[in-house]
Amino acid sequence: MPVEIERKFLVDKTLWQKLEKPEANFFRQGYLHTDPEKTIRVRVTNTSGYITIKGATTGASRLEYEYEIPKTEATELLDQFAETSLIKNRYILIFEGKTWEVDEFLAENEGLLVAEIELESEDEKFEKPDWVTEEVTGQKKYYNAQLAVNPYKNW
Amino acid sequence: MPVEIERKFLVDKTLWQKLEKPEANFFRQGYLHTDPEKTIRVRVTNTSGYITIKGATTGASRLEYEYEIPKTEATELLDQFAETSLIKNRYILIFEGKTWEVDEFLAENEGLLVAEIELESEDEKFEKPDWVTEEVTGQKKYYNAQLAVNPYKNW
What we know:
eight-stranded antiparallel barrel; about 15% helix; homodimer; Hypothetical Protein Pfu-838710-001
């Protein structure tokens, strides 16, 4: 079964701002359903659409099934069916051979920066860039589905 | 937006049993989420898997977004995430140039036979085969999502 293993960290804003970065991809994503056992997400990026079913998180792991769908239909699904949603810019950076995804949240979550690294196993070793700070893996308030309900500006 | 327009009828069991029919396709389907505004269904057939998002029914119409997914993953999604499910045999028959889908429900819904015809518009005319009886379009208890919760044997 397709398992996603990822660890999540906060980002130092000052160092991040000084960093030379690639162009971001703009994500709009919404949730058709969330409960403790599963999340059904629709995402629209600059070029594509996706529907993703994720299971509950255990440690740094969760089941994840993702399917690419036409961008226009993903937009319609969000408009018609999303209970909650959020927007963010996503940056992809390579550091010491590993891929980091950094989300710069927008709108109600403006000011929040979160970096994620996807791993092959829970105990995989990796180097952290200097702009990566506190680990927040598994902290529910940082789940995107949660940020769509209780955004950063309300914390 | 992709709209499904279909009318639904009961089937005369005696005439149906005497009918020469093509081979059926076995469907197992479950619901990851249902509410009055939307249904998120995963279906496994003999050969394929599908994830389908349907909107609320208005008259004989509803929004429908369907995506084919690997059969093994559809099976896993059902096993992991379906809140409710059902099984049925589906027969496809052509009558007077139109396609009829006849569902022979199994297990908890054994004994229920329902025929559906998909239309281009709500007022489209069509001929009914003699084995088609009472119309049940829009009757909630015949919704598949509903049959998964309150099966025919409990009626």
